[in-house]
Amino acid sequence: SNEELVYAADHELLVTDARVCSLHTLYLGRDRVCSPENAIADQPGPDGIPRTLVTSAKLNRITGGKAAANGAEMAYPLFGSYRRSKAEFRFEEARIGFAVASNVLLMKQGARDIVMSFKFRSGRNGERKQGLFGGFAEGLGRILRTGPEDAFFKAFRHMFKISLTGEQGWLDVGEYFPSSSVVDAKGCEGDSLKIRISLPDSVGAIVPYACALHGEGFDTDLPIARFHLNPDAYMYPYSLLRKLVLREITIEVDVKGCADVLVYNQQGQLNAGAQFNPFGIMPSLGDYFIVGHHEAAIKELTDFEVRLEWGGLPPDTRGFEGYYRAYSMPFDNAVFKARLSVLKGRRWIPAAENEQPEMDLFETVSEEEDGGYDRVEKSRRISFRGLCRFSSPLGNVPEDSYGYTPMTKDGFFRLTLSNPPYAFGHKDFPLEMSRTMTANARRRRFGIFNLFRKALPQIPLPNQPYTPLVRAISVNYRAVSRINLENVVSAEQEHLREKLYHLHPLGLDGLSSKAYGKARLVPQYEADGNLFIGISATRLRGMLTLFFHLCEDSRPESATKAFNI
Hints:
By secondary structure, the protein is mostly beta strands. It is 12% helix and 31% strand.
């Protein structure tokens, strides 16, 4: 690892038109005085020398064509070992990490929570008993004289630099929350690591990957979450993570406040950006309105919630009961109900009405002060959680092609007015008004010589029926995606499926299904010193010969003083 390479920029190594276009060295440093890495290192190897953990990863971009002070050609480390002085080399922090591409990460607006769970293979009995990170946390806790929970957070809290594909490029995540069975025994399995990311509504959209915008050459058009190992973390995590064999990656998202929804009723499409009558201007039993959201429709949903803000509600302190008190039919806040269904294969599921969940359209707020009354709450959340198991993701349907027609197969939810039989009383209002006016006329006409007119007050006229009015509508949803890294899939499925990438200092590597069953979380470097040779050619054929000119002082016994960075 102490040998050095002489490279001149004007010297090309040719095989036909092939040439060396770049040289890079990667060096995984093992500093024996660095803590806590070496305090928790493995036991001594067969040679009796204690093994040390990787404490840094440095990349040297060899540019060549520069002469040393004495006029000789500049010498560079062949495998990245530090020699001579810092000024002679261009060492930088090496980018090492991984990335996950998944359509569930597409989130344009709202308050967004992302939980990424990495499930690993645990082999040894101790790992099964303590959890994959239990022994590590206990050992680090003893060194730091603190508990395993605190030690886990010290090691993992700033382990990664995370970024997502945003509208203006890569969107850096400022904070994240790690967890495992060490700190959450009930919420995490023993062989799992969870990373929670929270994005407020003020943060920009998470969009599909675009090479022109985000660079790096990923072979996908799905949104990407990118994880770089943080060189400034409490401990450099490469030695710990390189051992982990992945079984599955689960991504769960919880999104609240999506306003870009599509709304329809029996009369056609409605404008969700303005207030609208969801069941029409004269609702009757069986009328419906349909809600859809493209972002949710392309994902595997675990919950879909519609948030309605009602307008024009009765001001009566007794709610609908007081507002409809002049009607002969019974009314109260809980009498108005809707049945829920989901579109699947051009059919509304469940097909039988008695199997469709029934929900209250309005919520009551009971006030105990001032004698108590039941006011109608302006906002109402209606959840389709129980029906999400019937829904099917739309797949790669563009947003501009998303909409509801009689030929639409999936991706929409429906609320159908199911109670009371007389709906909101629109059809009965003329009769109720006629009855009331007739009764009042009879009271005036048939009073005994009009002497008891004051004793027989007029019956209050019925109010105009309430027509449901939605002032604002938004959608909350939860979705999940699972990337199984143990099952080999077909080439067609592999092209469409979500993907794990290894991030190297000089590029990336998308893991194919052939690697599943033994996929590691981060790329593997077996040697501490690594030389990368970039070769360009229109056609590379036959044998390629490379010439290395080694300096005289590159032997290990050289008197040249080594140094560490």
